[in-house]
Amino acid sequence: MSPRETSEIASVYGAFLLTASSPRSYGGALLPGEGGAMAAYVAEGKRIPRRGEIGLTSDQIAAYEDVGFVM
């Protein structure tokens, strides 16, 4: 990802985490394995699916956003 793309994405979604958090820092409201699954998405540079996006790949979500859908 180029610095320009990183800057544009950060302006929309906020700054990227530079280091991995420990599993205990996810809070107590998650089910077992949810924190690890979210960490895996973040480590791969993918977005964490939100409600309504479950079952879609990151590429499919990006395609919907490219044509104007707000996900």
Automatic annotation (TrEMBL):
<protein>
    <submittedName>
        <fullName>Ras-induced vulval development antagonist-domain-containing protein</fullName>
    </submittedName>
</protein>
<dbReference type="GO" id="GO:0005634">
    <property type="term" value="C:nucleus"/>
</dbReference>
<dbReference type="InterPro" id="IPR009269">
    <property type="entry name" value="NKAP_C"/>
</dbReference>
<dbReference type="InterPro" id="IPR040466">
    <property type="entry name" value="NKAP"/>
</dbReference>
<comment type="similarity">
    <text>Belongs to the NKAP family.</text>
</comment>
<dbReference type="Pfam" id="PF06047">
    <property type="entry name" value="Nkap_C"/>
</dbReference>
<dbReference type="GO" id="GO:0010468">
    <property type="term" value="P:regulation of gene expression"/>
</dbReference>
<dbReference type="GO" id="GO:0003682">
    <property type="term" value="F:chromatin binding"/>
</dbReference>
<feature type="domain" description="NF-kappa-B-activating protein C-terminal">
    <location>
        <begin position="24"/>
        <end position="71"/>
    </location>
</feature>
